[in-house]
Amino acid sequence: MKIAFVIAARNLLRHKGKSFVIGAILFVGALIMTLGNAVISGMNRGLSENIVERFTGHIVVISDTQENPNILFTPMGKDIALIKNFDKARTVLAGQPYIAAYLPAARGFSFVLTEEGDIDFAMLLGVDFPEYNRMFRENVRLVEGKLLGPNERGMLMSQGRRTRFFNDQNIWVKPVGFPLDEKNFSDEAKKYREKMIVKENLVLMGASGESTAFDVRTDIKGIIRYEFLDDFWKFFNIMDIETFRECFQWVTNSDAAVDLNKETKTLITQEENLDDLFKGETVVATKSAKAELSKSLKKLKEKSTAPKVQTDAGAYNVVFVKLKDNESLAARVADLNAAFKATGASARAVSWQQAIGQLGDMAGIIRGALMGFVFFIFFVAIIIIMNTLSMAALERTAELGMMRAVGAQKGFVTIMFFIETACLAAIFGGLGILAGTVAVPVLKAMQITAENNILQLLFGGKTFAPYLGVADIVAGVVELALVTVIASVYPIRVARRITPLDAISRD
Q: What value, to the nearest 5°, has the Cα angle with vertex 346 and ends 343 and 349?
């Protein structure tokens, strides 16, 4: 073995040019693979930081009747099923030791009605805002106005949605009680300032398969943006949970405690004889109008007789859950679903990737493309090194044939060739990994930013932040070792086939 090492070292020094070419290939390959691993790892950390920690949590709990787990980026107007008997689900969530925090919420799609007669839309997220912002590490940043306080009613409109609303309707939304702040005008708003319609409250009408009848006027308390991945989250406007419930005709505390006046009670009693309400000479009521009035009176009657309820009893359709550190996501999703089933809770746990739907799919595609690129470099490096080593073996036919003539066995040739390749991989490949390790913090310190949505997913955020941990370095070493072993298999076979007769015939 010692002789094999000595001869291998002599051969590397004797054939410096070929050794350097193979070493350079190994260096570049190791460098690119190390940087590729760092980008993939940085993307995974960035998505975990900016999606899991700042918007969804690790697990999202939905109704067990919800068919599509994609509940955040569903098609416009698509309903999300209510979690029935939410108290049961709450009891399960509160009893799991692996859960760090959870936040019940409501997600829905609503129409925006204006006095000008136009209709727009808004994606709404109903939450206890102080708890929401605390759980998601203050990802919501204030642009204008004020944030919602505890038990405060109102809506926080995203800056991106306000810009889109102006472009569509020529309506500029500002926070109630605050002056118009022209420094935050979009380019279009500056251009059409004279024709601008300014509003500080909006009428929202919840859209669902069951009903679209209730409209609620709500004050705009503030204009917000999201600290990370704002281009994706800007579709979500945040409002207090009670206003959300009213907008979507969910049962609320105020509904249960409704106190109807004398005139309304009289109308309810006359519901069966609506013709008496239209006896005036100038009053003409169509059948459809009577039907609508009857429907409205029935709803009022139901509200007046509704028992006192708690707003938490079923009036949520999503729960964001954060796990404690170092917990297995797949295992905890399974555990939580088993707990829901055991207690009869009408809820189902899904991973955050499933809950964000297309966004998660897009991130997975980008991650797969990066891994494919690293594999491509891996494959190309193997082919180039294999060809170079094979050519080197053929050029050393006389030398190898003479060694075989003086007694060197095929096993000795195999060991010698493998040692040569391993030495080149250890020296040049090791330098490539070291260079990649040094380059990663330098690239991170450059604070390269991206405005493009796809690049933001690639970066895992707005800033390029590759990450190289111990596991990534180990992965780089393993990849380098695989390249070395696979690339040396064929050249070793070529070298083993050389005989003393080949050396004589070559001379």
A: 90
